[in-house]
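Record type: ASSEMBLY
Status: queued
Input:
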Amino acid sequence: MDSDSTSRHVSRPTSPDVERIFLAAMKKTVHGFSGAVSSTQGDSRADIAADLRSLSSNDDDDALSLRMLSKKDRKLLSENELQSIRLKINSRERKRMHDLNVAMDGLREVMPYAHGPSVRKLSKIATLLLARNYILMLSSSLEEMKRLVSEIYGSRDGGGVGVGVHHHHAHGGGGGVGSGAFHPAACGGGGGGGVGVGVGVGVGSLAHPGAPLPGHHHHHHHHPAVHHAAHPLLSSPHAVSAASLSAPGLAAVVTSVRPHPGLLKSPVSSAGPLGSSFHHWGVSAGGMPCPCSMCQVPPPPPPPPHVAMSLSRLASDSSK
DNA sequence: TAGGCCATCTGGTCCT
DNA sequence: AGGACCAGATGGCCTA
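Status: finished
Output:
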């Protein structure tokens, strides 16, 4: 009794392995292990079980699509036929969403963030925002490396690598966001007023209304509403500006980000909002920029309109 | 208890 | 024709 009947359907998996991963995940789920898929949710839903039971008994019907039928045709079909078609469609949709979740988990795995049984996984929106900022940050790092290479070899080669990207340590994002406000404190090893608190960022100020990030002092305690702004990748000026511009809903969404376990391990006295386990090295150490938005703000890409749109939509979704 | 997050159901639309 | 994709609705679970 599992959703194997759903997996038998041919579909467009997000990757060639998705089907296999999905099956494995479903096995785990069936055995009570909250694995990669739906780890925060219990999958033992009575209606699903009912669906699956029905599916196993109605496996043979043709894949007529219910929505393709006219109302007249629908009336001609028996209750059982309609139900079996509906179940089949539901099953496909379920599998599709499972595949999406598997992909989302795959994304979580490669993000510089907590993975562990004691750490609640990132929400979907947080995962996407984090991924985006991570990509921006990596791109920025790459550009910086290119720039350094061109500086080193430029005198000989005449500067073959043309990179015009420089760090903007203090640039205000949209809506009065100023990520630079907390940068010095973070990279300077703490000190400075606030240590990333109240950050001056729309989202951050929502979550940290003035307290010195007490959540980071707690071992194995998660404060989803507290840590989001502390994570460098989620506090990028871009995401922040979008959040502060779009709606309180998105800000609320962003607050769902869970902390990196490293952020929780030790006091934050001298390490800024990331905690002492996170080592900021700014841009001075070997020229490599610190992979956090505090030490290195990604170059401001042209504000993609679709991002703003999707963000606003997410905001509206989250405000349901 | 409220709010956030999520899975699922459902009907519509688009694509092959 | 059939499947994928999408978005709204709904209800459950969890946490503050």
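Annotation: The CA atoms of residues 47 and 151 of chain A lie 63 Å apart.
Annotation: Residues 1-72, 158-232, 235-320 of chain A have pLDDT under 50 and may be disordered.
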